[in-house]
Amino acid sequence: TVQTNLDFSSEADMVKKLRVSLALQPIATALFANSPFTEGKPNGLLSMRSEIWRDTDNQRAGMLPFAFEDGMGFERYVDYALDVPMYFIKRGDKYIDVSGQSFRDLLAGKIKGLFGANFASISDWANHISTIFPEVRLKRYLEMRGADGGSVRRMPSLPAFWVGLLYDDAALDAAWEMVKNWGTEERQRLRDDVPRQGLAATIHGHSVLAIATEALKMSREGLARRGYKDIDGQDETRFLDPLDDLVSRGTTPAEELLAKFHGEWGGSVDPVYREHAY
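The structure corresponding to this sequence follows.
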């Protein structure tokens, strides 16, 4: 995987950015889908990494449907996290297995077998929050968790995509207008379909390819308005070029790898270690 962290300026700003990034996270998954092989053979998926997370401890993963409900804010996320089963607590250098028990139990002093260690600390909370793995994780920032790793050329495209959408008010508003009418079941279905279908998946009558094309346009406009330029006078929009190239051809990185596997690579994945090493 490759992840990027985005700031928010207030509780309301967090909620809007969280909702937009959760709704569009499957779009990022499709744009960066890059895990079509298992043990050297095609696995029938475009993002095996994303598929695995569909059924990996669903009590702490997923699309956070409550984030779209009225009253969403820091307190609502805390309520969610309090009830996510813990993995461990740490006392000194010792990790104590408390699997299946909640942080709410720890706060109430209800964890058995801790003896004098049956209390909750800020470090316990920080550790617990780090063991929650939704598609977008709320900490002191928003962590985008939907993308597969990829080539060096595409790596800067991930933060650029999200910065263009979330750090420009007009782009953020436009992105919210695009996704605000998507229902909970529709968002989940999209999340479930993208690991296999990639850009061909659909939601609300639109293909992921069409949505990705529009989202990239919004992001590019947002980056242009930011006006951040390097020493050569180039702005951040250039980092989106690899993604624009993909959507112009209607393909994912995974499909490019599969084409080479079935073509010039002669049924071997070994060349990937040469062509994509960095």
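The first helix runs from residue 11 to 32.
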